Amino acid sequence: MADHDPEQTPPSETVLDWHEGDMPYSRAFDDHFYCRSDGRLECGHVFLSGNDLPHRWQRDEPFRIAELGFGTGLNLCETWRQWRETAPGDASLAFTSFERFPMARADIDRALAHWPEIDRERAVLTAKWPDAPQGRIEIELAPRVHLTVVCGTALDSLQREEAPFDAWYLDGFAPSRNPDMWSAELMAEVCRLTAADGRFATYAAAGFVRRNLLAAGFSVERRPGFAGKREMLCGGKATS
């Protein structure tokens, strides 16, 4: 079951439009939640491949993934699907996402129903998702697979975290629409909370995003983006 902190005030309700039937669109940020061609395949190309996954989770120690922007939970579900198929039997996954405006269960279900490949993951997530998501949501998705969704502004939330993560999915709305999610201060917190051999990946390739990642202490690599997008960024902590 999900646990939440009653002392946290609930975030403002996400205001959505729906494009093409099941594509959620944020009115607040004037942007889609993922690419219009195939968000699930985009997740694999950008976030899993950019973080050298599933290769890096072939180990006995717990693997910790952090994400900026939970959205519909698509990245969680696709990551969990690939984890089920490839991770060692005794391995454990902790997936932590930082989300300012958590979506309602019905909206998550509507968006994720687009992909039958993740029906199993969608069913578990929506069954355990709280009626009024707020505070720090803790959900045991399966044995050795745990989800934490921290509701609130990303910078404030990250400043309260201590344990480092092995992989980061930087998946806020587009830098031109939501620059606070790509600020130098926030990227510095991301780097602080990255393990020595940890990595990050993002679909974003804006110049100021790259500069902020470099200034924070990451090495940054450009790779071809998904579905015709020219570039994406990924990398790890820079070696001194």
What would you say this structure looks like, in words?
- This protein has 240 residues and is of the alpha/beta class.
- It has helices at residues 39-50, 74-86, 105-112, 119-128, 154-159, 184-192, 207-216; strands spanning 16-19, 23-26, 31-32, 63-68, 93-99, 136-142, 145-151, 165-170, 194-202, 218-223, 232-237.
- The strands form 2 sheets. It has an 8-stranded mixed β-sheet, sandwiched between helices.
- α1 (39-50) packs across α2, α3 (105-112) packs antiparallel against α4 (119-128) and α6 (184-192) packs across α7 (207-216).
- The protein starts with 15 loop residues before the first strand and ends with a strand.
- The model is unreliable at 1-13 (pLDDT under 50).
Q: Which descriptors apply to this entry?
A:
240 residues; alpha/beta; eight-stranded mixed sheet; three-stranded antiparallel sheet; 7 helices; 11 strands; globular; disordered N terminus
